[in-house]
């Protein structure tokens, strides 16, 4: 069984255990992380750092912003088995959008890459988008909403400097707080954690887990924008930041 | 890197640095070697020097000089007003880049982007000018 299908199985089991009515189409996310001093695009789940090069054509957008949130020309570059981020100047924020296509849940429970037209017998068909926001430095002001981030995780307060501290985040859908988004604090090291479900204010209070890389994940299942092809849309967003270690 | 910005005073040359990286580092001395201001990003050390003749940049990685002939260095200068401009620096031997005649106005920020010509590997930092 492929890693993807295994992940779907785990996610589906977790959803069932939690009594979540909404099926999980794809638990994988995108985020950015440092690899050999460079910033790389990561596609994966937990410690699974999967083939991002193969999925590079699915990236609809990458953008960089300086400390004043002004755009800095930024692009993705294939480098061997990895995808690196190239920007023309220092960036404080990097964002990305991946269109992962339409997937269908078949009567036997398997997920296949088919639309509602191609698989009318499917119980669910979902159009999948993945979003990523990476904070590359201290923020000079409140993190803005980026129009291409249909679902975005916003820190409501200053990000703590030490692990173990609480952090209040707000999940936005099309720029507005959304209820029902499922938030976990550490997509890399604790991907099977019980998610916190946002209320009407979109708020979830997490505990920062790592004195290092933190990839916060939020998944929201929204209405379809194309009923002929899919019954719903899954929006999978990450907010990534790094807590510094002590001076060496 | 989520670290509080730290301003370093350098009254002699009128430069300050926004330090996103560790102040005390296992990757080399933070002491300026050319009378400028030092900024460390990861294991890459940038020293920016503003002089009447122009601006110079010296780069080291893990205490070793980075040959300027093998990299490009671009400065993105953002004035206090918000207007920004880019300057491509010129390799000037050893680990030195220079931009002759360039003046850095107080209140501006200077983003540095270093790109290895062979690998496209990048390192960057930001200085603020006092």
Question: Can you walk through the features of this model?
Answer:
The complex is a heterodimer of chains A (248) and B (130). Chain A is mostly beta strands and 248 residues long. Helix content of chain A is 6%, strand content 45%. Chain A is globular and about 60 Å long. With 130 residues, chain B is mainly β. Chain B is built from no helices and 11 strands. Chain B has strands at residues 15-18, 37-41, 44-51, 54-61, 64-65, 71-78, 84-88, 90-91, 96-100, 109-116, 122-129. The A-B interface holds A 36-38, 66-68, 70, 72, 77, 79, 84, 86-91, 135-138, 159, 161, 241-245, 247-248 and B 1-5, 20, 22-27, 42-44, 74, 76, 78, 82, 84, 86, 109, 111-113, 115, 120-126.
* Main sheet properties of chain A: 9 strands, mixed
Q: CATH first level of chain B: which class?
A: Mainly Beta
* SSE pattern of chain B: EEEEEEEEEEE
Q: What sequence of helices (H) and strands (E) makes up the elements of chain A?
A: HEEEEEEEEEEEEEEEEEE
End-to-end separation of chain B in angstroms reads 23 Å
